[in-house]
Amino acid sequence: YTSSISYYRMSEAEQVPEAAAPAEDLPDLNDPDMENAALKIQARARGMADRKRVDAIKEGKEGADAAADQPAKAEGDEELPDLNDPGMESAALKIQARARGMQDRQRVDELKAGPRKFFTPAQIAEHNTPGDCWVSFLGKVMDVTSVIR
Q: Can you give the pLDDT at residue 14?
């Protein structure tokens, strides 16, 4: 790329002849990142088209012509879910119930494990024989005697 305004002067060895410079930079279509980006763009476009068709059907219009009647949305505008929809309310309740259930299961597991025991470094150091070996790692104390044998 050459410009009529340059901030520094290139040496003759650095200069690229006009014919050798690419007319425009094209993306590498075999690049996996480029392929993933293209798939995301295509999926978003298909999703928007499908949402327009569904809205048209809900309004009683048929065909793709009904979707064309709706004003175009600006780039980045997302459709917000209808919070009064009974299906949305049901989905929200399921998500909340699942989260509460997971928290309750974690509390039950902690209670089953009993009270947490805390060991001092001196207590851990007492268990340093092949017949009785403890290791402290990342805040947990493990009995590794069976592994050593």
A: 53
